[in-house]
From TrEMBL:
It comes from Equus caballus (Horse). This is FA complementation group C. It comes from the Eukaryota. Pfam families: Fanconi_C. GO terms for biological process: interstrand cross-link repair. The lineage of its organism: Eukaryota, Metazoa, Chordata, Craniata, Vertebrata. GO terms for cellular component: Fanconi anaemia nuclear complex.
Length: 127
């Protein structure tokens, strides 16, 4: 499990850089790169979901302090959102960050970000 954690953390850094690059440019090359890497990115999101659902909010914030940036940039990318599978996994990740009864400041922080930052289209799917 510890090795999986290390792998996810290094993958997280890679994908954070990729998503940031995709978010900053709208060239044909960037679009092609997004589409080329989409299956691997979807797999990363699945792994992230599996990790997030096992963590409390403080652990999430400690291990992935920029999770909000990663998910927000993903929510804004039309090439990622064009695929239902990507949307589904992204919603799963977002749901892991919502706590109906916040117990600590970490819960409150994640709730506030999740409820206020992701696009309307994603809010409608969450209900």
């Amino acid at each position: 499990m510890a090795q999986d954690s290390v792998g996810l953390s290094s993958d997280y850094q890679f994908w954070m850089q990729k998503v940031s690059t995709w978010d900053q440019a709208s060239t044909v090359e960037t679009q092609q790169d997004t589409c080329l890497h989409l299956p691997r990115f979807q797999e990363f999101l699945r792994q992230m979901y599996e990790a997030l659902k096992e963590m409390d909010s403080n652990t999430v914030i400690e291990r992935f302090p920029t999770i909000g940036q990663l998910l927000a940039k993903t929510c804004r990318n039309p090439f990622i959102l064009a695929y239902d599978e990507s949307q589904k996994i992204l919603i799963w990740c977002l749901c892991c960050l919502i706590n109906k009864e916040p117990q600590n400041s970490g819960d409150s922080k994640l709730n506030s970000w999740t409820r206020g930052k992701y696009p309307v289209k994603m809010k409608q799917r969450l209900g």
